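quick one before i forget lol
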Amino acid sequence: MNRRAFLTRAGSPLLAGFARLSAQRIDKALPNIVLIYADDLGYGDVSCYGARRIRTSNIDRIAASGIRFVHAHSPAATCTPSRYALLTGEYAWRREGTGILPGDAALLIEPGRTTLPAVLKRQGYATGVVGKWHLGLGAGNLNWNGEIKPGPLEIGFDYAFLMPSTGDRVPCVYVENHRVVNLDPSDPIEVSYEKPFPGEPLGRTHPHLLKMHPSHGHDMAIVNGISRIGYMRGGRKALWKDEEIADVFAAKAVEFIEKHRGGPFFLYFATHDIHVPRVPHPRFVGKSGMGPRGDCILQLDWCVGRILEALDQHGLTRNTLLIFTSDNGPVVDDGYKDEAVEKLGDHKPAGPWRGGKYSIFEAGTRVPFLVRWPARITKAADSPALISQIDLLHTLAFLTGASLEEQAAPDSFNLISALLGRDPQGRPHLVEQAGTLSVVVGRWKYVAPSKGPRMNKNTNIELGNDPAPQLYDLEVDPGERNNVAAEFPDKVAELAALLEQIRRSPRTRP
């Protein structure tokens, strides 16, 4: 069904309101779109999803006037593949090289490809990305001292202010559009992921220089008293201060909103919180009682508050579609001795789900997902619809009247009714990605056999790998404690065949 037919047939006042508008009025009524993408935030890490030891009042504000999804998923249990799938509408496991990227990786998404920002840009949106990128930059052997391209501007964004990779990987600098910010040409940046630079101190050789020590890995280049993954020297004036990252990103995001408040605009605000290293601004230190991880959750909530304030201040709240979610599930110890384990107490980052980041169990991809659009969503509600971030490309294309090429967004479904809280079903099926793959259909989840380790010993997270097939009834066993594969061999065969069909097919989009 095309967009106009859908709007015409819609029975609810929410959607029928679109149908009464002329094409010209529809264009003028297009919402601003803000996507806030948290990092490593678990289903149980925010109070509107059940957290009790910590209060996330700004995130709760979104839930209080929007749709709270309880069966929403990131495309993968780690960040690079989730971000790739979010922007392209394609399952990352379909393509080689979409695992967690090093900090010097080339741009993963080829210029000219249909992406979420490119689609919205065609519809007249100003498009911007602020925050963590981790999708590669350049075409290989990148010179960080010159033009840094291709990058976000070559795949549909008009503006970019980035952390190139992650906070625990070099280079520890900001990139604005095509240049490193505050770079001194007389102090050029050098980056290596193969060997250290002579004379540069490392975490493993100079632990006395560290203000935060690694628990595993993360013992290479030292920046701001924290050792990272990879080697770097130079660029001293350009180096970030971890304590200021959230403030810098929030300010740039607000600046983008203010500049484009005449709309329509699309802002992809990819926060760094609560990824390691967790080094909150001094005003949040000790406020959670849960150590730096908890303090960074409060810092993330503050960042969300800055966005909400900016929208309110400029009269943009009513016609802004605001989406808040996370790139994957939670991890407590992810490489630094930051008291996250010792001060966790009875807090459950994954909520009721099993596993966490890196895991094929539900906590790997079942994440917070909130949608607010006061002009079209008039009351708060919970939705059980099965939905994935991979669906945002097709859904937002439909919403804004954009057509998609046949080969574009091959795994993205148009879930506009689910997004607006009108369809409780959502997707017919969903493939989850970690070390192996699983498929969810209705109440059933099938996990493909795999030979990987069952436990990540560094993070103490169950990965869900098993040489035998696994089948879980999520309706009666949401914690995935009872593998019923032996009891339902026909269902195992059915879902195994479906997963294989999806793997062999180049697309799942209808």
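fyi Confidence is low (pLDDT under 50) at residues 1-27.
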